[in-house]
Write a structure and sequence with these properties.
Helices cover about 20% and strands about 25% of the residues. The protein has about 230 residues and is an alpha/beta fold. It has one domain: Ribonuclease Z/Hydroxyacylglutathione hydrolase-like (Metallo-beta-lactamase, Chain A). The strands form three sheets. A seven-stranded mixed beta sheet has the order 1-2-3-4-5-6-7. Strands 8-9-10-13 form a four-stranded mixed beta sheet, covered by helices on one side. β1 and β2 (about 20-25) form a beta hairpin. InterPro entries: RibonucZ/Hydroxyglut_hydro (IPR036866). This is MBL fold metallo-hydrolase.
Length: about 230
């Protein structure tokens, strides 16, 4: 099983179906389980960190017309340019993300705060040199999108955690950025999201991040090192 499958996708797995949004994993068999999302806003559908796959445009069309594409991590340029050209829209990149913008061969529109008229606002998170991402949060329905620093089915969870933080992020968890948000669901850039009691799952993960670091290191340290190395390729 490859960590990240760089070949063209021959089919996708739909995830996180709900009114106004859907996600997909373009390479269902890869270990890294890179997830893409289509979320509907007042101005149309926004594609978050998308990876292309045959038939995915029909999945997106069920949500609505594409208003824009967003790259929200230094390591998530992915196929943003291909989607932007196909739908004749720019790629939106937060002003603090450079690597993701440099690897996107399409017109770039920088932004801070609100992502178009999607009702999402971007929250800066740069805990370490070389690690920069943007959380998206929409207060009206409590949706939070986390590109890289945590996941529910890809990152190791420890004890009764339902959301696992990336190993190094446990040392500098984004408590200040996320602790005061009213969260109903959490979507991730890797794997399926959390929809049941998401607020409690997030609070628990943040509160116990450092305490659970030693066990997370033993349980998943080698796997996380492989994922990090593959992301740099």
């Amino acid at each position: 099983m490859p960590i990240y499958d760089r070949d063209e996708s021959d089919g996708f797995e739909a995830i996180d179906r709900r009114p106004g949004g859907v996600g997909w994993i373009a390479h269902p068999d890869e270990e890294g389980r890179r997830a893409s999302h289509a979320v509907r806003g007042d101005d149309g559908v926004w594609l978050l960190d998308p990876i292309d796959s045959p038939g995915v445009d029909e999945l997106i069309a069920d949500v609505g017309d594409v208003a824009g594409v967003a790259v929200l991590s230094d390591y998530h340029a992915r196929d943003a340019a291909a989607f932007a050209r196909r739908h004749d829209v720019p790629v939106h990149v937060p002003s603090w993300i450079d690597r993701g913008a440099d690897r996107t061969d399409a017109p770039i529109e920088r932004f801070e705060g609100d992502l178009g008229n999607s009702d999402f606002r971007a929250i800066e998170y740069d805990p370490f040199p070389g690690w920069t991402e943007a959380f998206l949060y929409r207060e009206s329905d409590g949706t939070l999108y986390v590109p890289d620093s945590m996941a529910a089915s890809v990152r190791p969870t420890v004890g009764d955690e339902r959301i696992g933080l990336y190993l190094l992020i446990r040392l500098r968890p984004p408590r200040e950025q996320l602790a005061r948000l009213d969260v109903e669901r959490v979507l991730f850039g890797h794997g399926a999201g959390v929809f049941e009691e998401a607020d409690g799952a997030l609070d628990h993960a943040l509160a116990n991040a450092r305490r659970n670091f030693p066990r997370a290191l033993v349980d998943g340290g080698w796997s996380e090192l492989k994922l990090a190395a593959a992301a740099l390729q």
